[in-house]
Design a protein that fits this description.
single chain, 8-stranded antiparallel beta sheet, globular, 14% helix, alpha+beta
């Protein structure tokens, strides 16, 4: 199931195994999103910005397993979807602040056979235009070097978007500080069409009102996992210790001993960086020991309730918006909620998650871990996972109102970011207090964290070997992340991307080593 994140979801959800909600890295985790990829949230991230601890970065990824070379139309955002990022700051699992993003697509060169085309510099080539075109007349647009202006002529398929903040029921459009439109960054077609793609992508980072920054476009999928092994009933590879990592394998956050099945794929992302003072209920940035420091966040996608197909005309949508998908923590819907309930869960609200408690109190994933690895697991009900679904320590400060059980990604905004040299993929489990499940950074290994949590490492007496060494052997992404906004790596090249398979050299970006086959 392309929601490799679903493994995480299940694991995380299991991990949450307390009443309902769960972690949610997900790709096509529910029947409704398996059929509606554009509305499918693959991952949701929230963390204090690495280079500006006065701000929080939210990242909403949608549309899984985008093959970078899959032209001619590639993978734009859907004009009919309302993409949202929601924040709860008073512990009731109801949004107090919402950021709404809407896209509008234009086809600027309807006679061109592909969404993006460009060759040469537009001056020196092409100069040999065949009859009846006058000699020297450019037929093919020059290489794409910008999102707007002369260097954008080859961007036939171009998307503008708007960002609206809804707070206390008041909608406020957020405008570009330069006064210009916001353009989504297109897929990376390749070096001839887009000779300096990093520069092109950087152009898509915009400063908005109120100190907010935004980026929208196609990027490398930041998630990593041995997906094939995970969905073969956690049949992790022998080369990775048969699912139980050695001390050396577990300690090295930069080397993979199993293949990353998401390597070489892109995803569509919306990243928003917001001052912390705009997010807390006090309107200020407070210390980590203050109950107001911890917020809950999640993403949700919506479609209009009515769509009429009008062939040969385009479809026409109307009516109020209906929720298609939501995600807070990685893994719950995918790995914890039963398939017959997944669509209902996707369209429900976090505040109502208690209705799914029976899935979390005795997660099936824990039973799978017991059967596969022969480990002892905590006896249900699994209250050890309660901090993941309520406002509770060690994420929230002591004395914080716990609120209802709900699938929110909780972030203590008073905890400063961890410097890159000290950042650990296992987050809180490794003593890195700025990592998952205190929010979620792009580099956090939610697969291993979730598996171990479900195995009981949060319970007294269960944080022992092998429970605390279960892992898929994929410890890092196939390409480096960025240390500045938007933090994800820019899109992989349609011409030059690679999917790393078992036994193939290049398993780990730092060593070029081969991945094990068995």
């Amino acid at each position: 199931m392309p929601k490799y994140k679903s493994v995480l979801s299940l694991i995380m959800a299991a991990l949450l195994s307390v009443p309902p909600a769960g972690l949610a890295a997900s790709h096509r985790e529910a029947p409704i999103t398996a059929l509606d990829h554009k509305a499918d949230i693959t991952d949701f991230f929230a963390f204090v910005s690495y280079n500006d601890p006065s701000k929080v970065t939210f990242i909403l990824d949608v549309d899984p397993f985008l093959e970078p070379g899959n032209g001619p139309n590639y993978f734009p955002f859907d004009d009919n979807i309302l993409y949202t990022i929601k924040v709860d700051n008073d512990n009731d699992a109801v949004e107090d602040i919402t950021f709404e993003v809407k896209f509008q697509t234009e086809i600027r060169a309807p006679g061109v056979f592909t969404g993006f085309v460009g060759a040469g510099d537009g001056i020196n080539a092409p100069a040999n235009s065949p009859p009846p075109v006058a000699p020297g007349t450019p037929i093919v647009p020059p290489a794409i070097t910008s999102l707007d202006g002369p260097g954008s002529a080859g961007l036939s398929l171009r998307q503008r978007y708007t960002v609206t903040m809804v707070k206390h029921g008041i909608s406020t459009p957020l405008t570009n500080s330069t006064g210009g439109p916001l353009f989504a960054v297109p897929s990376n077609v390749g070096p001839r069409t887009m000779p300096d793609y990093p520069a092109l992508a950087q152009e898509g980072i915009y400063s908005l009102d109120k100190g907010i920054r935004v980026f929208a476009g196609t990027v490398d999928d930041p998630f990593y996992i041995d997906l094939g092994a995970a969905f073969d009933s956690l049949n992790f590879r022998l080369g990775a210790g048969g699912g139980v990592l050695t001390a050396a394998q577990d300690a090295n956050d930069n080397v993979n001993t199993a293949p990353d099945f998401v390597s070489g794929y892109n995803v569509n992302t919306i990243a928003i960086e917001v001052p912390i003072a705009m997010l807390t209920r006090t309107g200020t940035q407070v210390a980590a020991n203050n109950p107001a420091a911890t917020i809950g966040a999640w993403g949700a996608t919506y479609r209009p309730r009515i769509t009429v197909r009008r062939a040969p005309l385009g479809a026409e949508s109307s009516g109020s918006y209906s929720q298609v998908q939501r995600m807070g923590n990685p893994l719950i819907n995918e790995l914890i909620i039963g398939t017959g309930f997944k669509d209902y869960w996707s369209m429900s609200q976090p505040k109502d998650d208690a209705q799914f408690a029976h899935f979390d109190l005795d997660p099936l994933l824990a039973r799978v871990l017991n059967a596969v690895y022969g480990i002892n697991i905590p006896t249900p009900p699994r209250t050890d996972l309660l901090p993941l679904v309520t406002y509770a320590p060690p994420i929230a400060a002591p004395g914080t109102k716990p609120g209802p059980v709900a699938d929110l990604l909780r972030l203590n905004t008073g905890v400063p970011p961890t410097p890159a040299a000290n950042r650990r993929r296992l987050g809180l489990l490794a003593g890195d207090t700025a990592g998952f499940p205190n929010g979620r950074r792009v580099s956090d290994d939610v697969t291993d964290i979730a598996a171990r949590a479900v195995a009981g490492v949060l319970s007294s007496g269960f944080n022992v070997f092998p429970n605390n060494r279960i892992g898929d052997g994929v410890n890092t992404n196939d390409v480096p992340y960025q240390e500045t906004f938007p933090y994800v790596a820019f899109a992989q090249s349609g011409r030059d991307r690679r999917h790393i398979d078992p036994g193939e050299a290049g398993c780990t970006m730092n060593t070029g080593a081969a991945c094990p086959i068995n």
